[in-house]
Amino acid sequence: MGIYGRPIIYDQSMVRDYDHLWAWRGNEYARSQSLADLLGSTGTVVTGLGATPTAPASLTINLAAGDIYQLAQLDTTAYGSLNPDTTQTMMQGFAVAQTVLLSTSGLGAGQSRYALITASFSQADSIPSDDPTGGLLYYLNTVNPTGAPYSGPNNNNTLQNTRRQGVCTIGVTYGTVATTGSEVPPNAPGGAVGLYLIDLTFGQTQVNANQILVAGPSQGSNTPSNYPQAPFLAGLTQKPTVGTYAGNPNGNLAGTVVGTVGPSYAPNFCWDTTDGLMWVCSQTGNALTAKWVGGGNRTRLTANTTIYVNASTGNDSTADGTSAKPFRTLQAARNYAFSHFDGGGVYSLTFQCTGAFTAGLLASGTISGLPSVGEIWNFTSSSSIALSAVSTYCISAVNAAIQITGTVQLSSTGGGSASCVQIGAGGFILLNSTGIAFGAAVNQIYLTQGGTVELATGYTINGNAGQHVNGGNGSFYAPEATVCTITLTGTPAFTTFISLNYQSFVQLSAAYVTFSGGATGQRYNAAVQSYIKTDGGGASFLPGSTAGAVDATSVYN
Predict the structure, then answer these.
(1) Are 114 and 197 within 8 A, CB to CB?
(2) Is 412 in contact with 393 (CB distance < 8 Å)?
(3) Is residue 57 within 8 Å of 477, Cβ to Cβ?
(4) 407 to each of 50, 283, 327, 417, 429, how far by Cα in Å?
(5) For the segment 515-535, what is each residue's pLDDT rounded down to a tens digit?
(6) Based on the domain organization, do 342 and 486 belong to the same domain?
(7) How far apart are the C-alpha atoms of 504 and 473, rounded to whole Å?
(8) What would the pLDDT profile of 459-496 be if each residue is shown by its tens digit?
(9) Is 450 left (phi over 0), alpha (psi -120 to 50) or beta?
(10) Which of 250, 322, 375, 504 could form a disulfide with 402 if both were Cys (CB 3.0 to 4.6 A apart)?
(11) 9-18 — which CB contacts under 8 Å span 24+ positions?
(12) Which residues fall within 8 angstroms of residue 190, CB to CB, at 6 or more apart?
């Protein structure tokens, strides 16, 4: 029943706020203590709170909704008629989806500093937006009990808070300004934990996906090897692996497991304070064996890992992803990684792909625990993905963030919405190699439902297409100061080079992006509040042979 017990209410007795409030306090304490028992520790952990760049990129970062679980005082201030309660327990705080604005103020030429995005727990009393009387409470009129009630205490119309919430407060702590290359990350302030590190330089105007680092040892320039790991917890059954204390094969248990461990081989919960993850442990002498609760089959990575895919020699039935046993298809390799690995917020997965592939890739959902854009698809020279079925995609990212590197020829000619690259439902693809070539397709790049493609380098276009970029509620951009050349060979033909609809956005700044070669077809068409930003490139900046057009709600400049 817990230390607070349950209130006893007698028949026909007048209910006291004391009893009512104690019941709620006891419920909160019981829930919080159960959480601590389940986790096996009172170390702070966070869930959600994924960080992504804005589109277009800026110094503002999008932060998804999430929670923090932190040891804190049960009630820091009076709870109705009850005094503050100093009992420490695991409290939950919620953060709504929000944006975080970073600043380069105070930096001079040649200087840099780190920004550390942090989270902490606090309590806040408020009036909910759906409160039917807006926080105006009615009280008994003791002078005239049968008359109208008082509006507020003593009939003074004072509004009163009616909800006590646990809040996950997001903050930014900046490191010391230093000469670029010598900057070091700051520590989180007392009561807070670090989530993400971003290295900012003088004159910087935007943050890209590969600059948002999950805080942890040796992340980024000059980050110490013992820097605190961001305590992300992706769920008890989402991080399965097996490790042992003696021998330390996973590199994370030695010296860090704390908590009660039962007698010889009697299982009990224990906790790895390095990465904030829970284990079931058993101990004999000085040897401690630890395994994940739930008995799943994901292995937590201890280093950046490569999975091999070979279209000629691979076998999906016998593959394990090693160079000796590669997968044959891209999809089988991805499905295996999705169910078998967890990056722990630190380590990346590289899919090393070789050969001529005749089936595409759908990256749906993020692979557990990978850092930002930590899912890397690298293609060796002469690799290709060639599709001919209706509405098929060579590479598609849906609610996932991936990057494409190496050398690969992409084509999809089956009609419908057949595309070389498709991004939907908030997906993100980073094109990070000059070896990427877009061949014949209906759409070479197809953006839908908030999908985004970012350029880290230029690439080649060597095939005809209906559209090079076809966007409906999506974004395609090269960040400011990203110098790249998009090379067109053989004068490919397009219906429209860039076609946008339904609040889509393209940014290709003429100051940094160059087109080499020519094309035929309409240069651009933008409709329904869409925006093509060339930063003064002019009407003939984009490839094509006929003039572009915008409707009354859209902009080209």
Answers:
(1) yes
(2) yes
(3) yes
(4) 30, 50, 19, 24, 16
(5) 999 999 999 999 988 999 999
(6) no
(7) 5
(8) 999 999 999 999 988 899 998 788 999 999 999 999 99
(9) left
(10) 375
(11) 17/80, 17/81, 18/81, 18/82
(12) none
Helix (H, G, I), strand (E, B) or coil at 154: helix
Q: What range does the domain containing 177 cover?
A: 17-127+162-214
CA distance 523 to 470: 12
User: Taking the chain, what is the end-to-end CA distance rounded to the nearest angstrom?
Assistant: 67
Strand, coil or helix: 35: helix
Separation between Cα atoms, residue 51 and residue 10, nearest integer Å: 52
- Please, what sign has the CA dihedral across residues 249, 253, 255, 258? negative
What's the CA gap between 318 and 339, in Å, rounded?
16
Residues 6+ away with beta carbon under 8 Å from 21 = 79, 80, 81, 82
Total Cβ atoms within 10 A of residue 240: 19
Asked which of 371, 397, 429 is the last residue of a domain, the reply is 371
56 & 194 share domain: yes
Confidence of residue 248 (pLDDT cuts 50, 70, 90): very low
DSSP letter at 65 equals -
Given a contact cutoff of 8 angstroms between Cβ atoms, the answer to whether 363 and 335 are in contact is no
State how many domains the chain has.
4
Please answer whether residues 24 and 30 qualify as being in contact, where contact means their C-beta atoms are separated by less than 8 angstroms: no
Bigger pLDDT: 435 vs 373: 435
45-48/66-75 β-pairing: antiparallel
Give the integer Cα–Cα distance in Å for 139 and 179. 63
